[in-house]
Amino acid sequence: MRIIEQKGEYSYVFSRYTEPVARVQPGEEVVLKTEDAYCGLLTSENDDLEEVRNKRRGPNPQTGPIYIEGAKRGDTLKVHIINIEAGRDWAVSNIHKFFGGLTPNKFTRMINVGLSDKIYIYRLDKEGMFRHDDYLRFPWKPFMGTIATAPDLEAVSTLTPFENGGNMDCPDVKPGNIVYLPVSVDGAYFFTGDCHAVQGEGELCGTALEISAKVTLRFELIKGKEITWPRIESADEYMCVGSARPMEDAARIAYAELIEWMTGFGWDRLDAYQALTQAGKLYCANMVDTNYSMVAKVSKSLAER
Amino acid sequence: MRIIEQKGEYSYVFSRYTEPVARVQPGEEVVLKTEDAYCGLLTSENDDLEEVRNKRRGPNPQTGPIYIEGAKRGDTLKVHIINIEAGRDWAVSNIHKFFGGLTPNKFTRMINVGLSDKIYIYRLDKEGMFRHDDYLRFPWKPFMGTIATAPDLEAVSTLTPFENGGNMDCPDVKPGNIVYLPVSVDGAYFFTGDCHAVQGEGELCGTALEISAKVTLRFELIKGKEITWPRIESADEYMCVGSARPMEDAARIAYAELIEWMTGFGWDRLDAYQALTQAGKLYCANMVDTNYSMVAKVSKSLAER
Amino acid sequence: MRIIEQKGEYSYVFSRYTEPVARVQPGEEVVLKTEDAYCGLLTSENDDLEEVRNKRRGPNPQTGPIYIEGAKRGDTLKVHIINIEAGRDWAVSNIHKFFGGLTPNKFTRMINVGLSDKIYIYRLDKEGMFRHDDYLRFPWKPFMGTIATAPDLEAVSTLTPFENGGNMDCPDVKPGNIVYLPVSVDGAYFFTGDCHAVQGEGELCGTALEISAKVTLRFELIKGKEITWPRIESADEYMCVGSARPMEDAARIAYAELIEWMTGFGWDRLDAYQALTQAGKLYCANMVDTNYSMVAKVSKSLAER
Amino acid sequence: MRIIEQKGEYSYVFSRYTEPVARVQPGEEVVLKTEDAYCGLLTSENDDLEEVRNKRRGPNPQTGPIYIEGAKRGDTLKVHIINIEAGRDWAVSNIHKFFGGLTPNKFTRMINVGLSDKIYIYRLDKEGMFRHDDYLRFPWKPFMGTIATAPDLEAVSTLTPFENGGNMDCPDVKPGNIVYLPVSVDGAYFFTGDCHAVQGEGELCGTALEISAKVTLRFELIKGKEITWPRIESADEYMCVGSARPMEDAARIAYAELIEWMTGFGWDRLDAYQALTQAGKLYCANMVDTNYSMVAKVSKSLAER
After folding, report:
1. Does residue D52 sit in helix, strand or coil?
2. Are A135 and B271 inside 8 Å of each other by CB?
């Protein structure tokens, strides 16, 4: 299988403004090597977090853009996530005093003192768990924190989740599932990276178990089918991801998009609204990034009619 | 078993300002009869929704207040939910043009035209499902939409979820689970009502399958233990519910309270913050009420140490 | 002129659940004596702020309820603010580590360390300025931080601004202006208090120059005229105050209500929307209370047609 | 004086990814010709608004980027606004059913029917007023809706206000005032456009009196002085603009930045926080764009010490 590695610098924006690092045919299975959110620079609990952050050009280095042959603006890109393999036997997380769900940050500005930074290194133990100590010990449930196509004109920070995907930090972007993304530029310009060994809902402190990885994907195109926000399909469920601020707007987008999806199965819009009221699921993927991400779900057995 | 029915008018506020309808000893198992959110007035799909809404003194008629013997301000009330029995063989839901997650409303004010109202009557079918038609058909997964103690000085609308519980519309307030509520006035002044035959996460259109019910409960007091927001315990999980606007503040409260709970098991605060980042769950209970409600969860096996 | 002083305890909720302290006829000019936000307990920069806060039953002690003779649910109460006289020659402000626009607080919960508390005493100097030091020195621009009628069923904390007014902390509630409030219960049950010697827009740190005062008012009733949110009239302008979270909802309410006001002058709704786009004013009254308050304004010369 | 006109297509992003259209020396006074928000395509009240919107590549065509000689990342760009001259004797505004402060929109998604679109053409009358009819008639109070430098890596939509300025729709970006912008890339890459003949606070319906214009500017560099958000200086006041969602975050940024500015005059941070509480101003510039913009102000006489 073809292995795609980033040539030169990783990308710190989702954008059309750099040359593709590879061209892939729909149907071809490829492996992408991705770096972790810290670009591999954070390796010890004694590192100076501020220093490491300043060394990076930005968060979440991306492998990409990957040019999908035949993709045209207005199509939908279907990404089959086949497998995620850990790039190494340890993962890193950290608490930062001005980033995270329960700290002041760039937008929710405060003038008081932040808490201390703290770095956590987790090592793979014999039972296949990532272990920091007896209590901070988590199973391998990998997913890609970032997955996106390029927007039409903008170049979007790899910290941001948005209409074309991006830094959704959504645990359902995982092996076995399919992610649907809008194609806004010819060739789609696909990016991924920021793999997480495991993460809870909300990514509360702002960093999951960050890890380098090998991601196996297969692309497919739905020609002439336009979607406006990312969608996810698992064996049993359809999901839409909304990313916005405040969080209720992210929730509104997620459910409104899911209603749109259901109308494609023949649902009347008001009845789909009623159905999701009684049987929809709605969880928070991230409450820490520049937009918050909410995921609305419905079982296939209810949606299909 | 003692059956408590509301004498006289139902309560439309959570408050200390009315006389208790019953006095209950900790440990006694009691059955409370509750009315549905429409006080039983909405019975046909041909009803005039506006007219019915205007007939009510308010939404979500409450059974209560119930005086819990021995409860003192500063205690915690532990409510064991033993059982919920449907009060009838049908349930009602509706879409309202100025209430719900995807419509303009009292606070998210807009000047455009709302959508049409629509009423849905669901009847219990032979398989025990609540059925409107072949597609809108849902299983019996009952819970109490409202559960509260009285606040100290305020009288809070039964549309509002808040520190003492209230209209959280949280599907985890269900048989088998335990709800913990702050006691802010002597006697606790417990209220419940607004039972739902079933509801998805977010209660998207604003009304679940509304039903009258018989709720079997047992109360317990934790003397001198003060909590500031509602907590829920299931067989496997600890949960905290935050209710606020915008929705991210509800999420912050839920996770911050869960960190507090974990410190009670010996967790360092930063480590609990880290643990919930990797293994917490965070779903939306309601995105339609005067405050939004978010539920943060952690497995007992992780929290206890 | 009749002077109304609070008998017994001050009220810490806006509610119908206590007996009126006075009954006033429409047209009568009365003087209300009000206590400051700290109920007069905070008198020195060396006080222990936490201790003082705990001594109070709540923030913003209210003078009231005052029964307005003839007021019926569905009327509008017109409050002419004639004069505000300082109750003493000093005022107090403070910075609190868990209350204010740039600190974590009860709803925007964080886990980091707060900043230090700090108390500021301002004394009236010879030029009539309130002076803390050479730089913190402000003119006398008094207004009432709280002004409300009782809601229908709720009892609302005196920290909260809402549909019936409340803790709007709006500098336009000042001598010379008229405040219009909904009447939700017979007798209106009017409250005021929390006078400020001066305050900027937003009340950034959470406490203005808090002062006891004598407030001269005259009430008037508009029979059978129902409004849903507070309105203010100055010599030149009409204003509506919206109070909600997030802040954009407060802004939406304020402008939507101002459009309603303009339709009363014969404006088409879309044209009023257009007019306010080009000539409306929109400032923040408070960004610190349990709801945020936004004030939308239009000049009378534009609105009247 | 040198007149700079856009060669080729206007820019629909604030970005470093296109070639500068001109190079300007600090100190040189230049005139920039700008197109209106509709790129001159909306000229009649009978136009089909949807059709016109689809013809544009995006909103708010920008004149730029302009390369400022000597500007280095980490400097501050000082923009003196000398004059704005109308490009024609009419202006256009419109109400759109899915854009604006009181309509559903891309983020605040709803499923109900929107209101009708409506276009307003205003013509300059003999008294120098822009007149639609006897009531919709407004004076010439011009300002630039967009003003920005390029961000480091991102390309930001011209609908968005952000750290480097952008679509703030702030009426204080007007002749006589100075705007300070961060320099994030060498040469600064300055953009402006979207001039408004007049606009109220909030730009309620989403479009002001849109007009083409000639803007006279003079640039200056403050070498080695880094700011993180836009600042404005008038004859009497210092202002900071925060742009974010929800609106309270925009307010937090604006006031937090103003505190930073005041510390440069020798203020202790807590005392500046206190000072702004009593004498700061805080208004809404826009409540319709992809971020909301709030402007915090302080008088120079208070700030300078």
Report:
1. helix
2. yes
- pLDDT exceeds 70 at position B113: no
CB atoms within 10 A of CB C16: 23
Average pLDDT for B150-164: 98
Q: Which two tokens stand for residue A107?
A: 């937008």
pTM score of the predicted model: 0.98
Residue B112 banded pLDDT, cuts 50, 70, 90: low
Judged by CB atoms closer than 8 Å, whether chains meet at D274 and C245 is answered as: no
Q: Per the CB < 8 Å rule, is A95 touching B274? A: yes
Mutate to test the interface with C, among A103, A110, A204, A288 (most CBs of C within 10 A): A110
What is the distance between the alpha carbons of residues C65 and C17, in angstroms, rounded to a whole number? 9
Beta strand D13-14 with D156-157 is antiparallel
- Both tokens of residue D250? 């925009």
- What pLDDT digit, counting tens, does each position of C69-115 carry? 999 999 999 999 999 999 999 999 999 989 999 999 999 999 866 77
DSSP assignment string, D216-244: EEEEEEETT---SS-EEE-SSEEEEEEEE
Q: Are C265 and C238 in contact (CB under 8 A)?
A: no
Using CA atoms, how far apart are residues A196 and A173, in angstroms rounded to an integer? 10
Does residue A88 contact residue A42 with C-beta atoms inside 8 Å? no
Tell me how far apart the alpha carbons of residues B128 and D260 are, in angstroms, rounded to a whole number: 64
Name the minimum distance, in Å, from the CA of D41 to any CA of chain A: 21
CA angle at residue D67 from D64 to D73, to 5 degrees?
A: 115
Asked whether the beta carbons of residue C111 and residue A114 sit closer than 8 angstroms, the reply is no
* pLDDT band, very low/low/confident/very high, at C160 (cuts 50, 70, 90): very high
Q: Please state, in angstroms and rounded to a whole number, the distance separating the CA atoms of residues B164 and B172.
A: 16
Q: Is the ipTM of this complex over 0.85?
A: yes
| Distance from the first to the final alpha carbon of chain A | 39
Helices within chain C (DSSP H only):
49-55, 247-263, 269-279, 300-303
Statement: residue B65 has pLDDT above 70: yes
Please tell me if residue B58 touches chain D, with a CB cutoff of 8 Å: no
Q: For C177-206, give one letter per residue: b (16+ CB within 10 A) or e.
A: bbbbbbbbbebbbbbbbbbbbbbbbbbbbb
Under a CB-based contact definition with an 8 Å cutoff, are residues B282 and B295 in contact?
A: yes
Write the pLDDT tens digit of every residue in A168-197: 999 999 999 999 999 999 999 999 999 999
Closest CA to D130 of D81, D193, D196: D196
In D247-273, which positions are buried (b, 16+ CB within 10 angstroms) versus exposed (e)? bbbbbbbbbbbbbbbbeeeebebbbbb
- Does any CB of chain B come closer than 8 Å to the CB of residue C273? yes
With cut-offs at 50, 70 and 90, classify the pLDDT of residue B122: very high
Retrieve residue B58's tokens.
């308010």
Kindly give the pairing relationship between strand D29-34 and strand B13-14. unpaired
